[in-house]
Each structure stands twice: as C-alpha cells, then as structure tokens.
Amino acid sequence: MVDPRPVTAPRMSAAEEAAWVRLIAVTELLPGALDAQLLRDARLTHFEYRVLMVLADSENQTSGMTRLASHTNSTLPRLSHVVRRLEDRALVERFPCPEDRRATNARLTDAGRAVFAEAGPGHIETVRDFVLDALSPEQLDQLYAISGSLLGRLDPEGRMTATSCSRAPASV
Amino acid sequence: MVDPRPVTAPRMSAAEEAAWVRLIAVTELLPGALDAQLLRDARLTHFEYRVLMVLADSENQTSGMTRLASHTNSTLPRLSHVVRRLEDRALVERFPCPEDRRATNARLTDAGRAVFAEAGPGHIETVRDFVLDALSPEQLDQLYAISGSLLGRLDPEGRMTATSCSRAPASV
DNA sequence: CGATCTTGGTTGTCCCTTCAACCAATCGGA
DNA sequence: TCCGATTGGTTGAAGGGACAACCAAGATCG
C-alpha cells in the first residue's frame, strides 16, 4: 500500500503488451474492412458470405443448420436470423430434413450461387490486399501456428470447425 | 467454360487458406470471450474497459473525444454513445474543452477509477489465459510483427494509434 | 409404452454499432 | 472581414447479434 505510482493500467511485460495491443487492433479493424468491401461490392456481410461459401462447398449445396453454425463459428440463433434474411433475398432456401424431422436444411439457390460466384474474386483480392500479401511465407506459417494455439484456448472442444480444416492442435 | 469442377469456393493456396481460416476464427471468437468475462465480472464491455484504460493513462485522467477515439480504434459516433452511457453510470464525466470551444473532454471519475482498478487484474488474467500463456516468447514477437504488417494495410495512415505504442512499421 | 432428457431450431427483446444528417467553432484565404 | 472549408462532436433511425424463452422431435430408460 505504499506504492507511489499514480493510478494506471495494470501492466504486462512490454513485449506482451505491445503484441496484445496490436492483436486487439487487428481484431477490431479486420472485420470492418471485410464487411465494407463485401457490402459495397456484393451487398453481403462477411458472415453472410461465409454462410454461402460453406453451402457452396457442401454436398448438394445443402447443409443442416447446426453443421452450418459450427462451420461458420456462429451460434444457432444468429445463424437462424441470417438465413431467414438470406431466404428473404432468395439466395438460400430452407426445407425440413427428411431423415430427422426436427432438423432444417438450408440450400443455396441458383441466385445465391450466382451472387457468391460473383463476389468471390473481389473478396479474395481484398484478403490478399489486407492480409496475405502483407506476410512472408514464414509469417504465414507462424500465423497458422499462433492462431491454432489461440483457438485451442478459445474453443477447446473444437466445436467451431470453421471449415473443412482438420483442426490438429497447433503443432507447427 | 469447359471447367468440369462443381461450383465451389474460389481457392487460395492451401497454406494461405489454412492460415486465413484460423485468423478469421480468432477475430470472431476473441472479442466475444473478452466481452463475456468483463461483462460477467465488471459489467463492462471490452471496449468500455479500453475507454477507461486510455483515460486512466491520460494526463489528469482526461482526454478529448477525438484523441480517445483514435486511441481506442473507434469512430467518433460510437465513442460518443459509449461515453454517454458511461456518464449515465457516473464512471466518466464530460465537460467542454477550455482551449477549443468545439471540443469536449472526457474525464474519469473516482467511481470510474475504482471500477477500472477492480476490473484490471481479472481482465489481465483472462488475456493470459486466452492469449499470452498460449504463446512462446518467439511467437509473441512473431505476433507483434505480423499484426504490425496487417495494421500497415488496415490502417495505413496510422490513425488508430491504439495506445502509446509508437507504431513503427513492422520491423521485427 | 410413458416420463424425462437431449437435440435441433425459431422467435422476440434488448443493446450496441453504423450511417447519415446535423450543428457549432475554427481556420484559411481573397 | 466575410465566406467557404475543415474540424470536433452529437443525435436519431436502422440493422445485426446475444440471450433467454420456447417448441417439436428423437432418444433413453423404467
């Protein structure tokens, strides 16, 4: 209780704080940048884009809601709202699953496929501009390993399979 | 037009896609994890916490709105709303800047200082659990460099100074 | 087979962010 | 000195996400 320092932020080591501050900045700025480009060029949220992408990569362009939610790192309520909106825009259609009558399937429509196909190249280019082209091949590997470690903490059970990526626990 | 492949996501290289997918997952999961802990333990958003932190680190616990916005990677409208809410909770007070009569200053109140001081240790611990302790010292340096490169693309003018961190362009 | 638990999903409400519009003060010339 | 442009900031409406409540269908077990 004799510490004379003024009230200030609790400190980590300098290296830790520097890395942490930058990581936070990236997590704040990147989503907005992706959304901005996709909304401008394709009237699509980045999250909506990923929903369409998972469907495009699924058998018959069809997936159950729960699987779709885990492949987009999303909650079921969130996904339900988003799919309803996409359905209103006729990019996706929902129908009851034949095998399990509790389940709902979402399927990409022709219009949805067209929108997704048209949005793809511009989005990829944006990802290159903002991320991939900024990193060396070694840094890409490092990013893969680092993100893997963080996901091991953020999503220990590996529920968020994200995509077909087989989430081996962060071995370089 | 003779490409026989089914409609599918435009592809990057395997290494690029793998790293990209994981980065996206981190940017989706990390903010929620931080918000959850702070809301539970201190009724504070991570963004609100950072507003309080910047004020705590400012001279006289006071800062103009524009400076506060750039130090929190935020827009002015967003900050304005948040500061109004914090003011409603008496954690912050606003008053006109004496030197520039257009400007508004925000100052941390005693209550705000107390809430921030109480929230700090738990938050730092969470950051350790989710991020810092998951990485080796080398990875921490790599993360610093990688994030720096990305910020060079996401915020070229360096408007988002984030904190006192002097944003030298991503030299390791 | 009936009671209960779990799984799969939707809906409504609240809160926060975004965006556009707006206003006041200051600066920069002509 | 006056007018336009820029800076600093607020506000209101609109849209998306989180959470809790809810419901229906399958599974489990007596």
Structure description:
The structure is a homodimer of 172-residue chains. By secondary structure, chain A is mainly alpha-helical. Chain A has a domain at 28-119: Arc Repressor Mutant, subunit A. The first copy, chain A, has helices at residues 14-42, 46-57, 65-71, 76-88, 110-130, 137-154; strands at residues 62-64, 92-96, 104-108. Chain A has a three-stranded antiparallel sheet. Chain A is globular, with a radius of gyration of 20 Å. The interface between A and B is large, with 65 and 65 residues. The first copy, chain A, binds a DNA duplex (30 and 30 nucleotides) through residues 32, 45, 47, 64-66, 74-82, 84-85, 97, 100-104.
Features:
mainly alpha; three-stranded antiparallel β-sheet; DNA-binding; homodimer; 8% strand; disordered C terminus; Arc Repressor Mutant, subunit A
Distance between the termini of chain A: 45 Å
Low-confidence stretches of chain A: 4-9, 163-172
* Beta strands of chain A, count: 3
- Write down the secondary-structure element order of chain A: HHEHHEEHH
Q: Sheet with the most strands of chain A?
A: 3 strands, antiparallel
Instruction: State the CATH architecture of the domain at 28-119 in chain A.
Output: Orthogonal Bundle
The most extensive interface between chains reads:
A-B, 65 and 65 residues
Strand content of chain A: 5-15%
* CA-based shape of chain A: globular
Query: What structural category arises from helix and sheet content of chain A?
Result: mainly alpha
Strand line-up in the sheet with most strands of chain A: 1-3-2
Task: Give the assembly state of these chains.
Answer: homodimer
CATH homology superfamily name of the domain at 28-119 in chain A:
Winged helix-like DNA-binding domain superfamily/Winged helix DNA-binding domain
CATH fold descriptor of the domain at 28-119 in chain A: Arc Repressor Mutant, subunit A
Helix content of chain A: 55-70%
Give the rounded overall mean pLDDT of chain A: 86
Query: Using only CA atoms, what is the Rg of chain A?
Result: 20 Å
CATH class of the domain at 28-119 in chain A: Mainly Alpha
Organism (chains A, B): Leifsonia stereocauli
Protein name (chains A, B): MarR family transcriptional regulator
InterPro entries (chains A, B): HTH_MarR-typ, MarR/SlyA-like, WH-like_DNA-bd_sf, WH_DNA-bd_sf
Domain HTH marR-type (chains A, B): 16-152
